[in-house]
Write a structure and sequence with these properties.
Elements (H helix, E strand, L loop, with lengths): L9 H16 L8 H10 L5 E5 L3 H7 L4 E6 L2 H14 L4 E6 L3 H9 L6 E6 L4 H8 L3 E10 L23 H9 L4 E6 L4 E6 L10
Parallel strand pairs: 1-2, 1-4, 2-3, 4-5
Antiparallel strand pairs: 5-7, 6-7
Length: 210
C-alpha cells in the first residue's frame, strides 16, 4: 500500500507543528483543534448532561464543567486509567467511564437514556458512525453534536485538512447521519490537520435517527 504524501505541503507542516506546540503548552486541554476547545468551553453549562464516546484528556476537562458525564471507551486499560483519574477529581454530580468492547456495548449507554435528554454528545472514539447515529434522538432541542476528525467521515467543501478530504460519506450509516443533520445549524472548525464539526439541534422536529 502506497502512503499518500501529496498533502505534505509547507502549509500542512506549519499547521502540524503548530498543533504539537499548542498541545504541549496546554496539556490539560482535549485533543481537539483549539477553536473547537474554545467553542465547546463557551457552549457548556454547569447543568449539562454530556455523553462522550472516547475517553481521555477531554474526560477530565468535561467533568470539571458539567453535572453529568458518561464516557464510553473501547480500550480497557485506558478506560481504567481515565476512570481512576476521574474518581480522584471528586467532583459533584455524576461522572463515569464505561468500557465497551463491541458496537452494541458502545451505544448501549446512550440508547438507555430517554429521548431528548442529553445536552452535548462528543463523538471521538471507536465506531463513530454508530455513535453519531445513536446520539441524534437523544439530544435535546438546542443540544450539540460534536464530531471530531469529521474530515475522515463526511465531505466538507472548506476543509483545511488535505490528507483526508472526502468526496462522499465514509459509510452508508455516515450518509444517513449526514442526511439527518443536514437541516441543523452547524459550525466547522479546522487546525489544518484535523477538523471538528458542531451541529446544533434547533427544533423539536429534528429528532434524527430515522
Amino acid at each position: 500500500m502506497t502512503r499518500r504524501t501529496a498533502h505534505i505541503t509547507p502549509r500542512y507542516v506549519f499547521d502540524r507543528l503548530r498543533v504539537i506546540w499548542h498541545e504541549r503548552r496546554h496539556p490539560e486541554d482535549p485533543w481537539l483543534p483549539k477553536q473547537a476547545v474554545d467553542l465547546l468551553d463557551q457552549l457548556l453549562r454547569p447543568t449539562d448532561v454530556v455523553v462522550e464516546f472516547g475517553a481521555g484528556r477531554s474526560t477530565l476537562w468535561l467533568a470539571k464543567r458539567v453535572v453529568h458525564l458518561t464516557s464510553i471507551e473501547s480500550n480497557q486499560d485506558w478506560a481504567k486509567r481515565t476512570s481512576d483519574k476521574l474518581e480522584a477529581l471528586a467532583r459533584p454530580g455524576s461522572q463515569s467511564v464505561v468500557f465497551a468492547e463491541t458496537v452494541e456495548d458502545t451505544v448501549a449507554p446512550i440508547m438507555g437514556m430517554p429521548d431528548a435528554s442529553v445536552d452535548v454528545v462528543l463523538v471521538d472514539g471507536a465506531h463513530r458512525d454508530h455513535c453519531a447515529h445513536a446520539a441524534l434522538a437523544k439530544l435535546k432541542p438546542g443540544g450539540v453534536l460534536v464530531i471530531d476528525n469529521v474530515n475522515r467521515y463526511l465531505p466538507h467543501a472548506t476543509s483545511r485538512s488535505p490528507a483526508t478530504q472526502r468526496e462522499a460519506a465514509a459509510s452508508e450509516l455516515w450518509d444517513r447521519v449526514a442526511n439527518d443533520i443536514a437541516a441543523w445549524r452547524h459550525i466547522y472548525v479546522s487546525n489544518g490537520v484535523t477538523d471538528t464539526g458542531f451541529w446544533i439541534k434547533t427544533t423539536t422536529a429534528d429528532t434524527g435517527g430515522a
